[in-house]
Amino acid sequence: TSTKILAFAGSARRDSFNKKLVKIATEGARGAGAEVTYLDFRDLPLPLYDEDLEEAEGLPANARKLKELMKAHQGFLIACPEYNSSITPLLKNAIDWASRPEPGEPSLVCFKEKVAVLMSASPGGLGGLRGLVHVRSILGNIGVLVLPDQKAIGNAHQAFDENGNLKDESQQATILQLGNKLVTMTAKLSSSIEMSWS
Ligand code: FNR
Questions:
Q1: Pocket of ligand 1, candidates 14, 23, 83, 88: which has the most ligand atoms within 8 Å of its Cβ, to mutate?
Q2: Domains and CATH numbers, the chain
Q3: How many whole angstroms separate alpha carbon 173 and alpha carbon 175?
């Protein structure tokens, strides 16, 4: 069976630069033989995490949907904007909901033994690089193996062509390669986990 990758941006914005990056990297991942599911958080609105709400009503339907999606995939392809030098509230909120166990579920089941690759785009010169430091730290602390390879694309207003591809060939190649690398590394980790179980 092929490697299953869930691809999403940490922005719901319709013209999101980070969504464009996800689409390019998805091409790279599919080229490496993966089955990629694209998740647009605009289609999966989540309330702001509130422990009282969870206690009163359990997980919202969309949080359950998110968890099912994450559980069904072995790797995460993530492009996240930088907001005030950090992760976006949208992505942090999604992670927080997905981290909540339901009765009988092992802890952090959406995250443990998963592999992620990170990228970002920003109109600024650093391309959102400082935000990725935080995304990496958060995911690493909940059991995700975050690949050391990453890419931040600066000057995003000028960087993409009308088809959503990067004008700079080497940048385009790097993002495609990140998608590809995620698949090879996810496949390796998954097969070694299966070996350790058998
Ligand atoms: C930003 N932006 C931004 N950019 C950056 O490079 N460093 C930063 O610290 C911030 N901070 C920040 C805070 C807030 C609240 C907003 C709304 C924006 C700009 C951001 O990179 C820009 O809006 C991107 O276009 C967002 O990514 P998407 O939606 O295009 O994927």
A1: 83
A2: 4-197 (3.40.50.360)
A3: 6
